[in-house]
Amino acid sequence: MAKTLYQKLVDSHTVARLDVQNVLLYADLHVMNEYTSPQAFAGLREAGRAVAVPGQHMAVVDHIIPTHPVRVRVIEDAASALQASNLAKNCAQHGIVLFDANDALQGIEHVVAPELGMIRPGMVVLCGDSHTTTYGAFGALGFGIGTSEVEHVLATQTLVYRLAQDMRIRVDGQLPTGTTAKDLILHIISGIGAQGARGYVVEFAGTAIQSLSMEARMTLCNMAVEAGARGALIAPDAKATRYVLEHARDVARTHVNAALADWRQLFSDADAHFDAEYHVDASEVAPYVTWGTSPDEAIPVTGTIAPADTASERALRYVGLEAGSAIEGLPVQRVFIGSCTNGRIEDLREVAAVVRGRRVAAGVRAMVVPGSGAVRRQAEQEGIAEVLIASGFEWRQPGCSMCLAMNDDALAPGERCASTTNRNFEGRQGRGGITHLMSPAMAAAAAVTGRITDVRKLQAEPQPHPETAHA
């Protein structure tokens, strides 16, 4: 019987069939952070249970950690410090690897796990964070779980899992100059809606997907959840397996051929049935910007706002805009570049390419927060950090930072931010703050012009001489 990639992954990890809709699913890896795990460990203690397979869990401190550029980071907020210390205590007690605040490998969980080779094709990966869909870039089924489910996974290495439907989104053609995977996913979400993939695991396919780098594929899968998807997948190819083998240094050479043979079976059969299908022409994708308070409220940077319902009216009031307004030229006071969506080295290279020889506009505060310590070091080695600092950006320590403002990186009420994050909900980046999602290159353009700007205009200009730019 023909199967989709999603069905193959579920079948290979099903411990028991519970009923027509539910299975007991085995988890190859469980990723934790400091704010979704404390109650789960408390539940284990109350029940007198231990962690079943400690070696198949890992933890990071990322959401609440301050990102100030200091050598030794101290979490000053008492509640946040307690979360971090509890995580350290729980991991030590149960023998779980932890990348703590000042660990050289610390970073955002969805950046750290792939770069350390923990994510491999064919795996099931769970985490108490919705953007676990990121791992679909490797042909791994990743998805977020709740606190009670975290406890169940710790105790049994399994999860009671409700089956999803299959959706395929085929993207063919070539992305135009100036557009990225971030623009592509905003284009898709704005087309199918914030609930357009609800109840589905989405498989991305097509020539445009095949041409994307692994970093770009992670961006795409990361934000699939913003269309309501329960998971996202891309069939692993040579590009994916090369990335994994370069990063998974623990894979013994004697096991590589067997691994590759298994990974080559991870694809949807030619006659597999999908419950829903969409087709996207990559050549029609432009640089996108969100205008409202949901990721599907997005338009090309050259477009105008045309809301059609009462929810849009509320969003317009919150962001201080009107129907029919242009998004290009809108002044910004803050720029944030980072997050598990766009905090990787490829993203920072795109930013440096735009800002090199230019300066952050007067009245704009611009921050770059690398996705991990490894990304930060690589950016410094490549000279990217030097370019950013010379242009007037704050060069911070890794962490989730202003993506969800659980530390002191936050917008003030009324501040408008060009952001590379994944959500533009009301107050997401700070109470009363206004978020416009866009690609790293678009955020860089906003930083140096002081307003939302079509990055293609800057890319078409001759590169300014550094001395002129600093004058």
Automatic annotation (TrEMBL):
Keywords: 4Fe-4S, Amino-acid biosynthesis, Branched-chain amino acid biosynthesis, Iron, Iron-sulfur, Leucine biosynthesis, Lyase, Metal-binding. The lineage of its organism: Bacteria, Pseudomonadati, Pseudomonadota, Betaproteobacteria, Burkholderiales. It is an enzyme of class 4 (lyase). Catalyzes the isomerization between 2-isopropylmalate and 3-isopropylmalate, via the formation of 2-isopropylmaleate. Residues 8-450 form the Aconitase/3-isopropylmalate dehydratase large subunit alpha/beta/alpha domain. This is 3-isopropylmalate dehydratase. It comes from Ralstonia mannitolilytica. Its cofactor is [4Fe-4S] cluster. Heterodimer of LeuC and LeuD. Its EC number is 4.2.1.33. InterPro entries: 3-IsopropMal_deHydase_lsu, Acnase/IPM_dHydase_lsu_aba_1/3, Acoase/IPM_deHydtase_lsu_aba, Aconitase_4Fe-4S_BS, Aconitase_4Fe-4S_dom, IPM_dehydratase_rel_enz, IPMI_cat. It catalyses: (2R,3S)-3-isopropylmalate = (2S)-2-isopropylmalate.
